[in-house]
């Protein structure tokens, strides 16, 4: 008889302890933001832009007992802007020879690819017991940037940027009695004449 | 005998389950499965010639809606206040409320918030500046007088990053997102300007242009 009471007390205490831990357990997740808002000084000459348009269709369904009860769907288009130019903070070199000044600047490069959210065109969107969220389209838009940068027309953008950079720098540095030649090089050192 | 038959069938069932479990999974007989189809087609539209000199970059982070309202508006109270008793701050908040409501985002019922990170670039539009930049060039004294360049914010790019871990995801359609960005961009531009990006761009840009012309043999550069 005593043993029965003992077992009952142990079981009761066990249940009490379990309940206590379940109801008092909480989880703290801490994540530190690594972004520091500050103004940085840059020296970029942007000379060409390329516009891409993506048509994106998404359909997502969630079955309940094999029936596609919940679904969300959208068809949108969005424009991406790629900017190319030269990063003058990498340095430049000036040389004078026979009355002609030669300016050597870094090779042209891609500076940014921006999905212009203000150009999103929503052809239609449907939601049935399943809410569309920002991540549904932002994740796809962000992933496409990498794919676009691997595309074949990037080389034509770089070539256009090279031509425009040459013309822009010539115009910027055009002063009386000076003729400037522009050369692109991957290894430039800043020098003073 | 019966006992052995039951044991035999139980064991056989276990063996069959182990062998065929991976195949069963492939049959997609999950009654709660999630399916998604994504189709993307990309086209290159056009190349554009531009000429801009970027001299300052600012990465700016805001929280919607809190960074776009003044104080912590109690919508239930201020929306029904008599217009005679509204403060200037209330009027600004109400105007923002209706801008959002018109695109289907009701701030009074909002159960999420999100961060928006923007990259702002300030500098000089060279297409305008290079039309006639030189006012005077004194070759003998090596003094060059240039038109003072006007620095401005040239671009604000919204960084498309997924919702941060632990933050609620925003229930918003792509069209509503575009409309919201169109409302928020001018407000963000004002906030970025207050933080001094144009002054920083001017300081950095003037210093760079001066150094560049000094390198070309001009001893003194004057901006007028």
Runs of chain A in which pLDDT lies below 50 for 5 or more consecutive residues are none
Q: Give the amount of beta strand of chain B, in percent.
A: 25-35%
If you compute it from the alpha carbons, what radius of gyration of chain B comes out, rounded to the nearest whole angstrom?
A: 31 Å
Strand count of chain B: 6
Enumerate the spans of chain B where pLDDT stays under 50 for 5 or more consecutive residues.
none
Please identify the structural class of chain B as seen in this structure.
alpha+beta
Chain-averaged pLDDT of chain B: 89
Description:
The complex is a heterodimer of chains A (193) and B (224). Chain A is an alpha+beta fold. Chain A has one domain. Chain A contains three helices and six strands, in the order αβββββααβ. In chain A, β1 and β2 form a beta hairpin. The longest helix of chain A is centred in the N-terminal third of the chain and has 23 residues. By secondary structure, chain B is an alpha+beta fold. Chain B is built from six helices and six strands. In chain B, strands 1-2-5 form a three-stranded antiparallel sheet. In chain B, a hairpin with a 4-residue loop joins β3 and β4. At the A-B interface, β1, β2, β5, α2 and α3 of A face β1, β2, β5, α5 and α6 of B.
């Amino acid at each position: 008889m005593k043993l029965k009471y003992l077992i009952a007390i142990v079981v009761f205490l066990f249940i009490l302890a379990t309940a206590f831990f379940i109801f008092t357990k909480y989880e703290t997740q801490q994540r530190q933001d690594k972004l520091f808002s500050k103004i940085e000084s840059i020296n970029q000459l942007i000379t060409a832009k390329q516009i891409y348009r993506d048509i994106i269709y998404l359909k997502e369904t969630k079955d309940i007992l094999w029936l596609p009860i919940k679904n969300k769907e959208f068809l949108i288009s969005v424009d991406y802007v790629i900017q190319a130019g030269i990063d003058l903070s990498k340095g430049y070199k000036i040389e004078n020879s026979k009355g002609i000044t030669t300016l050597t600047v870094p090779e042209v490069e891609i500076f940014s690819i921006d999905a212009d959210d203000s150009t999103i065109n929503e052809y239609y969107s449907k939601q049935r017991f399943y809410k569309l969220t920002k991540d549904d389209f932002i994740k796809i838009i962000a992933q496409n940037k990498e794919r676009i940068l691997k595309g074949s027309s990037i080389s034509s953008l770089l070539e256009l940027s090279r031509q425009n950079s040459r013309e822009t720098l010539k115009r910027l540095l055009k002063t009386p009695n000076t003729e400037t030649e522009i050369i692109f090089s991957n290894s430039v050192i800043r020098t003073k004449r | 005998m019966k006992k052995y038959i039951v044991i035999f069938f139980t064991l056989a069932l276990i063996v069959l389950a182990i062998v065929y479990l991976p195949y069963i999974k492939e049959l997609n007989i999950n009654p709660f499965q999630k399916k998604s189809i994504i189709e993307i087609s990309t086209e290159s539209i056009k190349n554009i010639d531009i000429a801009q000199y970027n001299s300052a970059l600012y990465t700016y982070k805001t929280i919607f809606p809190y960074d776009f309202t003044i104080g912590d508006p109690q919508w239930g109270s201020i929306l029904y206040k008599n217009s005679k008793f509204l403060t200037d701050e209330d009027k600004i908040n109400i105007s923002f409320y209706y801008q959002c409501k018109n695109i289907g985002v009701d701030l009074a019922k909002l159960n999420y918030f999100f961060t928006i990170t923007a990259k702002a670039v300030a500098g000089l539009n060279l297409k305008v500046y290079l039309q006639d930049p030189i006012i005077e060039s004194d070759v003998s004294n090596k003094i060059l007088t240039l038109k003072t360049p006007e620095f401005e914010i040239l671009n604000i790019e919204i960084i498309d990053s997924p919702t941060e871990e632990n933050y609620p995801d925003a229930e918003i359609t792509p069209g509503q997102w575009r409309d919201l960005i169109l409302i928020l961009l001018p407000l963000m531009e004002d906030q970025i300007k207050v933080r001094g990006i144009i002054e920083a761009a001017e300081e950095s840009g003037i210093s760079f242009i001066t150094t560049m012309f000094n390198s070309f043999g001009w001893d003194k550069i004057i901006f007028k």
